[in-house]
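Input for the complex:
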Amino acid sequence: MADMYQLSSASLDALFAAISASGRRILAPTDRDGRSELNPVTSPSQVAKDYVQTALSAKDTVFPKVERLLSYTLAPGQVDLADAEPQAVPTVVFGIRPCEAGGFQALDAVFNWDTRDRFFNARMEQLTVIGMGCTRRDDACFCTSVGGGPGSAKGSDILLTPTAGGYLAEVLTPKGEAIRALAPEAFKPAAGADRSMLVEVPARFDQPALTAKLPALFDSPLWAEQSLRCVGCGACAFVCPTCVCFDIQEEADAKSGRRLRAWDSCGYHMFTLHASGHNPRETQGQRWRQRVYHKFSYYPERYGMLGCVGCGKCTRACPVDMNLQEHLLEASQA
Amino acid sequence: MELREKAKQLLESGDVKAVLGFEPGTHGARRPAFARSAARAERLVHDGEQNLASYVTRKEVKRMGRVAVAAKAPVLRALLQLMAERQIKEQDVLPLAVDAAGQVKELATAQEMEEHLALEAQAIPPADRELMDRLNGMTRQERWAFWQKELSRCIKCYACRNSCPMCYCDHCTMDCNRPQWVPVPSHALGNLEYHMVRAMHLAGRCVECGDCGRACPVGIPIHLLTFNAEESVHAQFGQKAGASSKLDYALSTFRPDDKETFIR
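Predicted:
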């Protein structure tokens, strides 16, 4: 049971000031030409007022689009190898939606599956998530179809739920408690758990039934048909809070080099292309199927959770409106 | 005849295997749609924004056979340029121009496409023109700072490349890894090299549809780079991409009367 407080809108100033004074950077949604994006802020006045979602996800706070894993120098008869140290900055992510906060668990499942990834973990340890319950949604949202909800606490250290004049603040973890302790006067005892301002997100499809059905749909022509308009870019994967596929790149010359980890996307025609020239996912339809199956069949099978939080960022980012929810509904009915 | 009726007629007669148009999508927006049956043709509309010509060079679409394409001016320009570059043949596609009253006109030959296009003014949208003018009014340092800031937000998802009707290379230089010409990751150098190569590769080939900019999930006005390169080529050599199905590519041709004002 979380500790519940009320936090007035005015007291956010004190909270932000205390977080900044503690040496943590605050990342929050800010407006930019009609889009929201996460940027460093120091005051609540900089935070976007009216957003459904940021265009990009917060995953790059723990899984950046590119990071160095190691570097080396070469000299005659000698190789000097140096491990890279993770650049983990103490960070508070403020105001991301509950769906996205839940997405960190899907990243954790992969980065701590067998080997514990020290880059991911170093950043995760330095990250505190202050989630913000949703009072608005749009057509791309489908959190309630994948086990989430506009007031879901999963993945947040503190969950704020908007109320008249402020927020209901649920302190959920020791990291959240550490933030509360920075500005204890801002957190007043809550009279009750008022969640009346949360938006309703109707459930769109029966996910357990879909997951059960997918193995039998593997050879269905549905995937090729759905993906006809897909242009094969990586926008969906790169904005996704749970997409975790990466590529390892070596950038080197005759004297030195570095090994980098960079985001990869199953939409690309070179994804899983073998050195022989064979690609088990040769067509866009097969690659689109992989995207759906990875999230809704392989993730449940391997990690006991979904690889999708229903945030709808992919749908909003897609240049040709590959609406995920609609495609999943179609698969459910196939 | 309206688009849906025409599409049904073409599909039923077997004249084409698919009709590319649009259908209503999320938030009431338009998205590309492939009608391969009369039933699917019932949902077709013509007033979408994407340049559908980007699909006609794809393997999956080429395998279908002849396709009809709802064709606004940028689509016609792209199709002509693709013919000029020998990527498609006249008989591979049937462009369907739709007039203000919703009536469809078949443009079965490159000549008909060229004649139809000649009636349409080609203009860069006012908001883009304004930003281009502002950029061109900057000092080189200011412009460099503008683009560095914009490109730092690039995530290298290649939505711009993959939406572009003129980016049809089966194996893009960006994807070459033996040897690797351009860094793959989205770091400062990787982003800059990618966008420089893209702009240069589209100089004199960009049909000014603006799809690359529309596709960008983070809103970088990336289309202005190719618009500007296109205008430079036009100013230097008097050519516009997509005006003709006959190849006359300025950047691969030397003529004694070239202006060469850029060599100083």
